[in-house]
Amino acid sequence: MIALDTRSGEVLAMGHEAWSMIGRTPGYIRAVRPLRKGAITDFEVTQRMIRLLLHRVGVSRFNRPRVIICVPSAITEVERRAVIDAARRAGAADAQLLDQPMAAAIGAGLAVNEPLGNMVIDVGGGTSESAVISLGGIVSLRAIRLGSFELDAAVQLYVKREYGLAIGERTAEDIKIAIGSAWPTGEEIKAEVRGRDMVNGLPKTVILSPDEIRGALADSVTAICESVVSCLGDAPPELAQDLIGQGIHLVGGGGMLRGLSRRLEDETKVPVHLVQMPLECVVLGAGHCIEEYDALRSLFMGAHD
Predict the structure, then answer these.
(1) What mean pLDDT is predicted for residues 151-167?
(2) Which of 166, 275, 282, 305 is the most exposed place for a label (fewest CB within 10 A)?
(3) Residues 210, 190: contact at Cβ < 8 Å?
(4) How many CA atoms lie within 13 A of 275 on its CB side?
């Protein structure tokens, strides 16, 4: 997320700070998400965002780094080239792309280079990906352009349809985090939600239950589960057998939805584990790849000398 002053073109905020501005800014300040469903929707803004990220880590015109960017495996070759082009124009000397499921598996500490079946489910903001990995490669893959943002939109639509109440993206996400679930949890905690009455335009408050939100999320959760089952169905029998002992590893912010691991276990009949750092797995995997690349490069240069 990035916040722009449309009058001057100045970037005012990025990340969580820009996210907190949604629905609370004057008309000339625009909070935009330049990447949606894993693809670039605004090339110029994406380029500026990458340039800001590089600037934060001390990159200048005289210090052009190599960059690894993790991308959803669902995007097309054209979309991949657009990401590389945006990174190079933003100041990177070179840009390499790494599929998010592989990065997540590395970041989770799985033995991806062993002849052993490892499976990761990455539920991100715009995409959900399931991959079976063995010997450093992806053996079976399913990716759908549906993630946490669609779950938020489902909550918004439900509240609008059932209560005639308009709520924003941030409020919908807060509801999802507070009482959303993919499997009955036994909790009776309800949430008080404030928004704008669509009939008279006045502020209005309603009370939502966990059962209601679980029903609102049901279609999206079912689509994620079906993609996971399909990915498992494509895996060779030997690797599928490994997964019974290894289990499936769940990563990504969307993977933190209450009861999602339990729902996936029920659908696949295989143990599902939410990793310790689901939000950081992908970037940790990318960092590990950079360290390995530098180590191998140093070794090669030393042998050459």
Answers:
(1) 95
(2) 305
(3) yes
(4) 27
Q: Tell me, what amino acid is at 113? A: N
State the number of CA atoms in the 13 A half-sphere of 234 facing the CB: 15
First-to-last C-alpha distance (Å) of the chain:
46
Contacts of 7 (CB under 8 A, 6+ apart): 28
Phi, psi of 285 (to 5 degrees): -65, -40
pLDDT value for 120: 96
Two tokens, residue 90: 């933003």
Tokens of 190: 């309800």
Q: How far apart are the C-alpha atoms of 30 and 46, rounded to whole Å?
A: 14
Residue 240's pLDDT band (boundaries 50, 70, 90)? confident
Tell me the pLDDT tens digit for each residue of 45-66.
888 888 888 888 887 777 788 8
Query: How much helix, strand and coil, in percent to the nearest 5, is found in the chain?
Result: 45, 25, 30
Torsion-angle region of residue 180: left (phi > 0), alpha (psi -120 to 50) or beta?
A: beta
Report pTM: 0.87
Residues for the chain: how many in total?
Answer: 305
